[in-house]
Write a structure and sequence with these properties.
The complex is a heterodimer of chains A (402) and B (169). Chain A has one domain. Helix content of chain A is 68%, strand content 0%. Chain B folds into two domains: 83 residues, NADH-ubiquinone/plastoquinone oxidoreductase chain 6, subunit NuoJ (Four Helix Bundle (Hemerythrin (Met), subunit A)); 41 residues. Chain B has six helices and no strands. In chain B, helix 2 runs antiparallel to helix 3. The longest helix of chain B has 25 residues. The chains are: A mainly alpha (402), B mainly alpha (169). Chains A and B meet through helix 5 and helix 6 of A and helix 2 and helix 3 of B.
């Protein structure tokens, strides 16, 4: 038994073929319908996300959140959208008009494009390409382009500086992310997302590779530019960063893109590590997979919000040091250990494989914590030393490194 | 004319037009953005050729890395964006001569190539091209030497970058 959406598609196909249309045209019509269906599903969910985000942040800050319009304030996002639509649309003087208007479209479209390869249910996937993981990396590269276009075309120094910061962050965090993404690819033996989900039986990859799951989630939050990595938005230095000049719905597109991107990162991590659509009873009733998938994706979205509203913003040099001196070496070590263990334990029984992988990950976590502890001890001593702000040249205080 | 041919013609015109604009426009940032469109068109042509891996790698490397570095370099260079001098240098006849000779040579070579009239073999639907490519890269009978040479080159570039950026006291 198939899921209802596939059944409707088959019925529609037979109906259209019955009308005497050519098979190529019918395939095209069905593909366009599929794109419209998945894009509108995601965008309608996006409107709902505004409400979720505001409600959750209110609870974290001991407030009620929107509660006036409709039951539980559910109509509030509609009012927000209307407000954004009727605001004045301002193009700053000296802005590069075409690029300026193209940038918010790219910002939202790159997030929507990710949903083309995410499997919602066993048969419900936009396009099951065999290079799915690499496709996600490629779309991330396009998102960088949207940011830099917005920053440059605004003809505003704050916007340009904000764009530089954001792009530096996105480009550097891409390195550990890509390396960590190789771990599920290695475990599943395929780069297709549906193949990765199918390989997560009987245990999810989060058990086999917990460090990789954490790394992907962490670098995903950094790619999003959410707290604690929201350096593109620093009110005292560069105001709102690359989208400072945007008003009305153009700003709304950036905002909606960011919210949807957060959910998309949740969806990706749940696909790669939490078994995607897997859950009890999916073999019998495939449409249940959509439910399991959305529950997992929204759980991770909640985790991302939890981190966002609990953590202070970190400084830019800390952010880059954390990436290059900590995450990148860690992901490289993790990839090597996983690759070697995968070959060593390949022929043994499955439970030995899982236990071996899990133990290796625990050892890595323990070693990392030990390293961090000794490093923190040195750092505390260094910070405690007296550091005069100015000293005459030649004196011992002026030669101490900062 | 099939649908795929129609898509090919549209994409080819877009790629060539964007490449031309990249050369003709006087705004450097616009030139970089047109170049990105041209590179994206090449990626679509890879998709049409059933080479999904190459298409995605084209986007990752050329758009995600090289173009972003180029845009950074342009934006961090003063006066370059607003430069409104002449776009041609005095030696343009030589460049034109070389370009015409290269185009003529390529056109002549292609005119003698018999591949236009042979229909390509259908790929077997069961073959995983990514797996085959990966095995070819490490197989001694295929590309292991070029692959290793490229790796050493990249490692040398990496060490060079660290050496340049090293903070010597």
């Amino acid at each position: 038994m198939g899921d209802p959406i596939t059944m409707i598609a088959r019925w529609l196909e037979s109906q259209l073929l019955g009308l005497g249309l050519s098979p190529v045209l019918v395939t095209l019509i069905l593909a366009v319908l599929g794109v419209i269906l998945i894009a509108s599903f995601v965008l309608v969910m996006d409107i709902f996300l505004v409400w979720v985000e505001r409600k959750v942040v209110a609870r974290f800050q001991d407030r009620l959140g929107p509660n006036r319009l409709g039951p539980f304030g559910l109509i509030q996002p509609i009012a927000d959208v209307i407000k954004l639509l009727i605001k004045e649309d301002i193009t700053p003087a000296g802005a590069d008009k075409f690029v300026y208007n193209l940038a918010p479209i790219i910002a939202l479209a790159t997030v929507l494009l990710l949903w083309a390869v995410i499997p919602l249910a066993p048969d419900l996937v936009g396009s099951d390409i065999n290079v799915g993981v690499l496709y996600i990396v490629a779309i991330g590269a396009l998102a960088t382009l949207g940011v830099i276009m917005a920053g440059w075309a605004s003809n505003n120094k704050y916007a340009l500086l904000g764009a530089f910061r954001t792009v530096a962050q996105m480009v550097s965090y891409e390195v550990p992310m890509v390396i960590a993404l190789l771990v599920p690819v290695l475990l599943a033996g395929s780069m297709g997302l549906n193949a990765i989900v199918e390989a997560q039986t009987p245990v999810w990859f989060v058990v086999v590779a917990p460090v990789a799951a954490l790394l992907v989630l962490l670098t995903g939050i950094a790619e999003l530019g959410r707290a604690p990595f929201d350096l593109s938005e620093a009110e005292s230095e560069i105001v709102a960063g690359f989208h400072i000049e945007y008003t009305g719905m153009k700003f709304g597109l950036f905002y909606a893109g960011e919210l949807l991107h957060a959910l998309t990162i949740g969806a990706l991590v749940s696909t790669l590590f939490l078994g995607g659509w897997r859950g009890p009873g999916v073999e019998a009733i495939p449409i249940l997979g959509v439910g399991y998938f959305l529950i997992k994706a929204f759980f991770l979205y909640w985790v991302i919000m939890w981190v966002k509203y609990s953590m202070p913003r970190i400084r830019i040099d800390h952010m880059l040091n954390f990436n290059w001196k900590f995450l990148t070496p860690l992901s490289l070590v993790l990839l090597m250990v996983t690759a070697i263990l995968d070959k060593l334990l390949e022929n043994g029984p499955y439970w030995v494989y899982v236990t071996g992988m899990l133990l290796a990950n625990l050892v890595i976590i323990w070693a990392v914590l030990q390293l961090l502890r000794s490093r923190a001890r040195v750092e505390r001593v260094r910070v405690a030393e007296p550091r005069p702000v100015a000293a005459p040249p030649g004196s011992p205080a002026s030669t101490t490194t900062l | 004319m099939t649908g795929i041919q129609l898509v090919f013609i549209v994409v080819a015109v877009m790629t060539l037009g964007a490449a031309l604009m990249a050369v003709l426009t006087s705004n450097m940032v616009h030139a970089a953005l047109w170049l990105i469109l041209a590179l994206f068109g090449v990626a679509i042509i890879f998709v049409l050729l059933n080479a999904g891996f190459l298409a995605v790698v084209q986007v990752v490397i050329y758009i995600g890395a090289i173009s972003i570095i180029m845009i950074f370099a342009i934006m961090l260079t003063r006066r370059l964006i607003t430069d409104i001098g002449t776009q041609t240098s005095s030696s343009w006849p030589w460049a034109a001569l070389i370009a015409v000779a290269l185009f003529g040579g390529l056109a002549w070579m292609l005119s003698t190539w018999g591949g236009f009239n042979t229909t390509p073999q259908l790929l077997s639907p069961r073959s995983d091209q990514v797996v085959e490519l990966g095995q070819a890269l490490v197989s001694p009978n295929a590309f292991v030497i070029p692959f290793e040479v490229a790796s050493v080159l990249l490692l040398a570039a990496l060490i060079g970058a660290i050496f340049i950026a090293w903070d010597r006291k």
